[in-house]
Amino acid sequence: MRTSGSSSLLIAIIALAMLATMAEVARAGIVVPNSLETVEGNTNNGLPFSIGTFGLTSQRYQQVYAASEFPGPLLITAILFRPDAFFGNPFTSTLPSIQINLSTTSADPDALSTTFADNVGLDDTIVFGIGPLTLSSSDTGPIGGPKDFDITIVLTTAFSYDPSAGNLLLEVRNFAGGTTTPFDAHDASGDPLSRVLTVSGGVSSPTADFVEGAGLVTMFSTQPVAVPEPATLFLMSSGLASLAGRAWRRRHLRQRPRAAASWRPRREAPTLSENLTLGRPSRRGLSLRPYDFEWLEDWHAPCVVNRQQCPQRDDRGETLKGRSQRCVR
């Protein structure tokens, strides 16, 4: 099926718009709970990072996020938190030993098991550590909150998450303590997050000794699964733009009127055999057919070179060059 120039141009424009939208989504962050993207949470907490504030030397922590908070399959590349608007402060702190896992779980918010292994999904992935983790915040944003999400954990291994397969489980193992500023958190019945953690059991405990409906307000830096890399995106955009330009040009060239001065009779080869080879009658006893004229300006059509008649010359006797030169066919 042949596509008209206008249709090709429209398709190219739509494709470019879709690529631009994909690039924008790739840079976006998803805040959970969604309803708190521009609203301060109703509580604060530093666990599982600022455990030194509570006199703890290690901790195991799990927090679940409802699948309904995510728009579709995503690649999670970073996890971000924000300081509490009222108790948070600027800080920089290096936690000696942290491990972070992500997995897809069948456990729902407010229904996590106190047995940690029961909550972990089959796709459990270490996305950071074990190793030191440096966290910091400038505590910027409105006085009454919410503050900016500038407490950033860049994952060493990105996690592919499909909400249709279950909820998202964050697991943090803090092996050696540390302190940070209080983070923004939320605690409400029926909200899309909850957590279980150890208080006295430590990081090696298989079970939690504390269950809570609260959780840290979290932003996930994501990109759509299989989104083109920036270089690929640029090349695809350039190619579509080029196709759009060619479609527009062809459409308008076909509409250009052909000037009478652009036509002239083709010169014939001197012998009958060569004229028959070229598919044309000889001058001897036969008249020229209507298609024995050529349009000098039509450089789109291919030509077959007659060795005795190229290069051609224009009306002033100058040799035609490049695409302007028309060879006898």
What's the number of helices? 4
Describe the largest sheet. 6 strands, antiparallel
The helix-and-strand class reads alpha+beta
User: What proportion of the residues form beta strands (DSSP E)?
Assistant: 25-35%
Taking all Cα atoms into account, the compactness measure Rg is 35 Å
Percentage of helical residues? 10-25%
Topology as a string of helices (H) and strands (E) = HEEEEEHEEEEEEEEHEHE
Task: Summarize the helices and strands and which ones pair or pack.
Blueprint: H1 5-26, E1 29-32, E2 43-45, E3 59-65, E4 74-81, E5 91-105, H2 116-119, E6 125-137, E7 151-161, E8 167-174, E9 183-186, E10 193-197, E11 210-212, E12 215-216, E13 218-224, H3 230-254, E14 263-265, H4 272-277, E15 293-295
Helix pairs in contact: 1-3
Task: Report on this structure.
The protein has 329 residues and is α+β, with helices and mostly antiparallel strands. The chain is 17% helix and 29% strand. The protein contains four helices and 15 strands. The protein has a six-stranded antiparallel beta sheet with strand order 6-5-8-3-10-11, with no helix packed on it. It has a four-stranded antiparallel beta sheet with strand order 1-13-4-7. The chain is elongated.
